């Protein structure tokens, strides 16, 4: 089985221009294995690396290091007082690579070629209607074309949905995408090695790009997207009035079109002109990655499942079975699946305690007589009556109708 991390290393070296033989020697792999990984898409990432006791204190240690406390022994003593139960060696190994960072603080602007890299990030824009307001942005490194989308969530599903929208807006995908160490991309770092978010890594493999993350506390590494977020706050945001997220995003996209038609401050060229030179991997004809929220639910004997505090019916043959409920990020309905088989869809409820019943889901049940009195006012007209029987009878029916 091809593993995602190994596959990413092979793809990265290939993008750098190495031949199959050179990749084979570099990674100590057989050439047949290299060819196989260049031709196939890997399965999902499986194994999560073990964590270390010091990991819970890594942020605190880094903050103290930046404040000038650069003695490993002193740092060890400080986190011991905070409950650290590990050894001194773990702390010493963690801070060792930090000692040479001061020599690397100076940097030069790094420019990438057409189609090589894009950068993404989030910006915070206060609150709206009682919730935090964010802007997702992705910038093509060569042309400086931008995609912006305002949301009120920063979870994995929303991130992936924004990326899919960006790919369509910009006309494709770059060879790599650079980001910071956000939890929706990086779950952890072990001895400097990135432990990727599994769903994000699966998404990257689906679209064929190599994910990259900048070093912690080095925001200048992704200066192009930092510039985009800053420009959005200074040039677009002041004075904006909107009635909905759709209205806000429409205004942001119109603003971006105007910006793309003006010369960029660094390249001196219009992003639209350089965009024509980008060599992006097209997503036309490729089904969009399913970014839906997904949750497993057990169907009760009354053919109802519970999701977000509401009840939804499914065909009676699936009573007692585990089904998968999917909710699109920007959708107004849910779909229910069993072993990759579509069962039904319902409008997404608004209020807790609602019942969403499809009468057809009960047709064919034997001995229909009466529904429980508490449910009668909540069900739409035409729902078939169902006799109340002992649980053993329902179990017999569900097993007999199993697929």
Gap between N and C termini: 30 Å
Strand order of the largest sheet: 3-2-1-4-7
Biggest sheet architecture: 5 strands, mixed
What is the alpha-carbon Rg in Å?
Answer: 27 Å
Q: Tally of extended strands?
A: 14
- The level of helicity is 25-40%
How many domains? The number is: 4
Mean pLDDT: 83
Structural shape: globular
N-to-C SSE string, H for helix and E for strand: HHHHHHEEEHEEEHEHHHEEEEEEEH
Poorly predicted regions: 369-403
The oligomerization state is single chain
Please state the second-level CATH architecture of the largest domain: 2-Layer Sandwich
CATH C-level of the largest domain? Alpha Beta
Percent strand: 15-25%
- CATH topology label of the largest domain: Nucleotidyltransferase, domain 5
How would you describe what is shown here?
This protein has 403 residues and is an alpha+beta fold. The chain folds into 4 domains: 1-43, Arc Repressor Mutant, subunit A (Orthogonal Bundle); 53-104; 108-188 and 197-275, Ribonuclease H-like superfamily/Ribonuclease H (Nucleotidyltransferase, domain 5); 293-400, no CATH class. Helix content is 31%, strand content 20%. The chain contains 12 helices and 14 strands. The protein has helices at residues 4-15, 20-27, 31-39, 58-66, 72-81, 88-95, 156-170, 198-207, 223-236, 245-260, 271-275, 391-400, and strands at residues 117-128, 131-140, 146-151, 176-179, 186-190, 193-196, 210-213, 293-298, 304-307, 310-313, 322-327, 333-338, 341-347, 355-356. The strands form 4 sheets. A 5-stranded mixed sheet has the order 3-2-1-4-7, with helices on both faces. Strand 12 (333-338) and strand 13 (341-347) form a beta hairpin.
